[in-house]
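Same chain as my last thread, 84 residues:
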Amino acid sequence: MASTRTIAVSVPNEVADLLDRQANKSAFVTAALQEKIQRDADNAIMDRLWGEGWRDNIPAEAMAEVERRHIAHFGQDDNARRAS
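reply #2:
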């Protein structure tokens, strides 16, 4: 079993509101962080394969579809999250 520890963090109000709606806050945050770690690893692989500018060649329509699916899944615009 993995060891755990308790931490306290300050988050923007909109993130706190999202967390307040979760039954298991620890599982929610852990899953989100694991997803980010995996996404970063996947992007690093793509950077090695295609070069760092590979995202520049993705059509705007495809990026918009990814953003729509992200919002549908997580309930918040990624740009709003980055701005906070």
